[in-house]
Design goal:
Helices cover 21% and strands 29% of the residues.
Length: 290
């Protein structure tokens, strides 16, 4: 589907499992399990939906999934599943090789968003790409709290600081490429950046990352226990979703298997999924029947 001068397409790095209570915080299980059934260990499925953006002589990748950094014990712990291969294999099937990627936008450096940027030996997967991260978030990732330390991997941070990496530290909201803006939000983790594609007054897409990881979390009070500042997340969601409704944005939900992308409506006092959008082959627009 086209937004401004860019074709946008979702590519998957597979799925993994996390505790449902951690994903929904104070929301009772009897409510969230209707849409997110848990296994015997109370784990629910999270997609690893990455976004490829092509246009303006750029090939831009947004987030990288978990990559190949994981031991057998960790693969079992997280229930990592890739029945159709990983992100690099998915891109290759569409004719995109790692060296073709000109820009890699990392919404933040948690392992499920940035793990695929490096090989197990620590070398960069997307060696030709400029890597974009918020400067505030990088500072946080280098010195996180005990609460969120396990969300970061030292080898990812080392790769960003290596001479091999063309790294750009972004300071706040800015247009990093023509028609591609990054919008910082801080409730989940300081300096997370969302990616807004397209021009004002026309079709636009927001990659919502961990501000709204599931479509079900359009409901404002459905917040993650992982959020370091949940009340700030609440206000950030309110502001961004209000814009999304008014300007008719398409949102990409990074962790949603069933609804990877959709427009948002405000109905009966709450935000809900509107028209679902399938971001299939670049240059095409597909919407489900009905």
């Amino acid at each position: 589907m086209r937004f401004g001068n860019y074709d946008c397409q979702i590519f998957s790095d597979g799925l993994y499992l996390l505790d449902g209570g951690a994903m929904f915080g104070v929301v009772p299980k009897v409510l969230w399990q209707r849409q997110h059934p848990a296994d015997e260990s109370n784990r629910i499925e999270l997609a690893l939906n990455c976004l490829l953006v092509r246009g303006e002589d750029r090939v831009v990748l947004v987030d990288t999934g978990m990559g190949q950094l994981w031991s057998e014990r960790e693969i079992d712990l997280y229930g990592l599943q890739r029945p159709e291969g990983d992100l690099v294999e998915a891109l290759a099937r569409a004719g995109v090789q790692p060296e073709d990627v000109t820009d890699l936008i990392l919404t933040h450096l948690h392992f499920d968003h940035a793990g695929g940027m490096i090989h197990p030996d620590g070398s960069l997967v997307f060696k030709q790409a400029t890597h974009w991260v918020q400067a505030q978030h990088l500072r946080w990732a280098k010195d996180p709290t005990e609460r969120d330390r396990r969300s970061f991997r030292a080898d990812i941070l080392e790769a960003i600081e290596s001479t091999e990496c063309d790294f750009r530290a972004v300071d706040g909201a800015t247009q990093i490429l023509p028609g591609i803006e990054v919008l910082p939000v801080h409730g989940h983790t300081p300096g997370q950046q969302l990616v807004l594609i397209g021009e004002p007054g026309a079709a636009r897409l927001l990659y919502a990352a961990d501000l709204v990881p599931y479509a079900s979390q359009l409901h404002l009070p459905w917040l993650m226990a992982f959020d370091l500042n949940p009340l700030l997340t609440l206000e950030e969601k309110r502001e961004l979703l209000s814009r999304a409704v008014f300007e008719e944005w398409v949102l990409v939900f990074e962790h949603d298997l069933k609804t990877p992308a959709a427009k948002v409506i405000f109905d009966s006092g709450r935000y809900r999924v509107g028209e679902e959008v399938q971001l299939g082959q670049a240059g095409t627009t597909q919407t489900p029947d009905g």
